[in-house]
Amino acid sequence: MSDSATSLYRxxxxxxxxxxxxxxxxxxxxYHNSHxxxxxxxxxxxxLLELAIRSTYFSTARRLFAEMRTYDISGNIETLKLHVRLxxxxxxxxxxxxxxxxxxxxxxxxxxxAGLGSVKRGKEIALPVWLELFRxxxxxxxxxxxxxxxxxxxxxxxxxxxxxxxxxASQFRKxxxxxxxxxxxxxxxxxxxxxxxxxxxxxxxxxxxxxxxIVDTYLRSLSPNASYRRWRACLDVxxxxxxxxxxxxxxxRHHEALQSCQELLNCHSSLRATSxxxxxxxxxxxxxxxxxxxxxxxxxxxxxxxGPRVEDRRVRRQIxxxxxxxxxxxxxxxxxxxxxxxxxxxxVWRTQTEALGSSSRVPTRRCRRRVLLAGRGKEEAKWRxxxxxxRKKLGE
Length: 396
Description:
The protein has 21 helices and no strands. The protein is mainly α.
């Protein structure tokens, strides 16, 4: 049991950032609720809110916001940001905009979002809140859990069902007129998140040329001494041009996505492709002839240029699936053997970790979502399904 707000927050961090077992919201909620109200804080609620929204448990997120109001726990900019995110993801963009305007603040983080003071009123929208308004409605979960937030639908219903380019364009213009004022130091070093959300919106609106010009100029202006996290964020921006390739299908789509990716990677010598880059490019081969052969050739080219780290279990599964569809059982066998070897290495590492203990220190802040929610269970299920198909193909 924790005896202070700080210890409760750190214990929640430890619970949610387990390197082996994925976090479970129900366990975190039970642990949090077992502590007295006096040591609960905005920071501990923000941890739970982010995980609930990320897991699309929107009714749970609303209940957590209601608890904060009931127990008179003052929120901070992080809380406001998460509230705006909830409204946007559930289709209430206008309500989110109104909340951001009413609760605007001059305080916004320079390098990270956690641990800020209480929200203050002002004339400008804080940068992290402003970025949340670039999100779009979460359709995949809205139909599944529509009954859980029927009570929240009001005169803002039009926002939850309308998704036309006209509405998106009007929202984009409104956001551009309220661009947060940055300090001179920040103006010279615009956060990558701003470029990311602006690029995504412009690509959705069909302004690919303008988005490409902005990103190309931004990447070439970066310092070679930038941090690793900054380069990873820049890589996420480059991945947008693969995801939003305008050509609908076929090998032409693949070549267009590959060309755009290579040109943007060449903008700076510090940019390096990752397994996610290769995974996205392989996705453009889905409806092409000889997709297994083309995918394996692409893997070999990437390994030759960027090293073995571009190959992970997602890449191996995707190439094996394509090769099975094409009938290239030799490639399927290569990918399955590589996956078996990787699992043996992971098993040895996990045994050593459990026996000797992890050498990593206790986390003091939230890790990135790509680490916290890596989708290990989902990927494992896809591999089991693939192995079953291979056995049926071989008549086992």
